[in-house]
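re: that chain from earlier
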Amino acid sequence: MRFVSLCTPPESETGLTWWFILNGKGVLVYTGKDGEMVLPRINGLNELSLTPLAEYYLGTLDGAGCRAALVDDNAAVPGGMEFIPLRGFIAGTDEVLFEIASRASTIIHWDKNSRYCGGCGTPLAMSETGMVKVCTACGLTVYPRISPAIIVAVVKDRSILLANAGRFTHNFFSVLAGFVEPGETFEDCVRREVKEETGIDVEDIRYFGSQPWPFPDSIMVGFTARYAGGEICADGKEIKEARWFTADELSGIEIPVLKIIIARRLIDWFVENYK
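^ sequence. v structure.
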């Protein structure tokens, strides 16, 4: 395993540290002429003349320490570097670095938005033993929020169900997704979301994989499912249009481009198995 999650740093560290430096604009990287994005590996933020608003230890990557930092939106950007939106960072990095950046972004978002106890209003204090905040007055513990969502490839014969959501461009289609509701299993969420958005019933629901999605604090849990009945009827709210596509027909529409995101991985799984 390349990345090992840890909440507290070792007593002594040697070598350079990976730094995931974020503000409201994105993550700070060195940028090359060919669009390459390189995260800084340095001893400390003083090397970049940056003053952190908060720092967090994340763990180790290939044996080297990983830290996150929040800096002011108006902080001077070091030469040769720029803040890249996280969605853009996906395109220029590998999956492991994106997952660590997701962790950093989610922790920073949680820290900024969990300042006070929801029970008594007392300021929360970060625990010294883990990524958790504790109320010194009433003892309430507050962990980083993670919002689970399902994403699913529904297959009928040799076709996949793809949809065009209201936020998409005219000819862009992707697999269905939605947030899990309280008291709901992932499988129940798959059934409900597909039914609500397209009118289709599904069966044979199988786990595919998962991916952190820091916008701001989700995790996408992927599934495959088989058509069980019903006619497509887009809900007209979240979904403008839904259709069945064979593998050959995918070349005529826009689909997710980045191969490391789980939506594209589900579509690639379909193509590989049903082309």
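The longest strand covers residues 201-213.
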